[in-house]
Design goal:
Mean pLDDT: 88
Largest sheet: none
Distance between the termini: 57 Å
Oligomer: single chain
Strand content: under 5%
Number of domains: 2
Number of strands: 0
Shape: extended
Number of helices: 4
Low-confidence stretches: none
Structural class: mainly alpha
Helix content: 55-70%
C-alpha cells in the first residue's frame, strides 16, 4: 500500500485534525537522527541555507537598534 494522504485517510480529516496529526508526528520524531536516514537533498538545502545566513550576517543588527528605527518611522 502506498503511503499517501488519500490511502491514510488524511484527506478526510478537518484542518484542526490535520494540524493535531502534524503535531503528533512531529512529537514522535527522535531527538537524534541517524545521518544515513537524511536524504541528500536535505543536506544540500541545509548547506545552502547556512551559506545564505552567513552572507546576510553583515545586514543584521541588534533588535534594540531595529526597534528604535521602527519606532522612529512610526
Amino acid at each position: 500500500m502506498a503511503v499517501t494522504i488519500e490511502a491514510l485517510g488524511i484527506d478526510r480529516l478537518s484542518i484542526r485534525e490535520r494540524l493535531e496529526l502534524i503535531e503528533q508526528i512531529w512529537n514522535s520524531l527522535p531527538d537524534q537522527v541517524i545521518p544515513e536516514e537524511i536524504p541528500a537533498w536535505h543536506l544540500q538545502e541545509l548547506t545552502r541555507r547556512r551559506a545564505n545566513i552567513n552572507s546576510c550576517a553583515e545586514a543584521a543588527k541588534p533588535w534594540k537598534e531595529a526597534l528604535a528605527e521602527i519606532k522612529g518611522n512610526a
